[in-house]
Design brief:
Aminopeptidase, seven-stranded mixed beta sheet, 9 strands, two-stranded antiparallel sheet
Length: 198
């Protein structure tokens, strides 16, 4: 028998009811006191490792401000430390939105998972799954009917997580990025994945 509800809302946090001693908690918040934690997660995710690229700090600050203004912020905590984040925006905010999506969906009824980030030492512990579950639980009460996320085609671990949680490949784009040292550019193939919101 499948467990229907794995999390319960508890004093502003989501806690795993099958393991109440678990230290991981999820919070949906617009409290800007976590802004620096989000920026650190973003820089860790995109300025190191295989997806290393140049990050303009001014643009990053404006982007995070926009998410706080019109989007949603879900944070994962372990022992009171931010270990993951899911940031969403209305899909119309995606400046790379492919024509195929515009032609086949009512964009104003779609939400975009703009960022999904988990600290490297917390990956594989279920943080991403819990962030997604809580995100969809909250979005099902909104006016959104569809969700999209855009993922680098070489990020196999992330693609596996999203597909396992009901997302399906929909279309692709090529996105030009600046090398981390600013010396030139490279192209990343990105996959847009789609999921219906209940």
């Amino acid at each position: 028998m499948q467990k229907e509800q794995q999390n319960v809302f508890l004093n502003g946090f989501i806690q795993n009811k099958f393991n109440p001693k678990a230290e991981m908690q999820i919070l949906q918040t617009n409290d800007k006191k976590y802004r620096d934690d989000i920026i650190i997660l973003y820089l860790e995710a995109f300025s190191t490792g295989k997806s290393q690229q140049y990050i303009d700090r001014t643009e990053l600050n404006e982007y995070i401000n926009r998410i706080y203004s019109v989007g949603n912020v879900f944070l994962a905590f372990e022992n009171e430390k931010v270990t993951g984040a899911l940031l969403s925006l209305p899909l119309k905010s995606d400046t790379y939105l492919p024509d195929k999506i515009k032609a086949n969906f009512r964009v104003e009824e779609c939400v975009y998972v703009a960022e999904m980030m988990v600290t490297e030492n917390e990956r594989g512990k279920g943080t991403g799954r819990l962030l997604l579950e809580n995100f969809f639980e909250k979005m099902s009460g909104k006016n959104f009917k569809d969700a999209f996320i855009r993922v680098w085609d070489e990020n196999i671990q992330a693609l596996h997580l999203y597909r396992k949680n009901g997302f399906e490949d929909y279309t692709t784009i090529n996105q030009t990025k600046i090398n981390a040292d600013g010396s030139g550019t490279f192209v990343m193939k990105k996959i847009y994945l789609h999921k219906k919101i209940n």
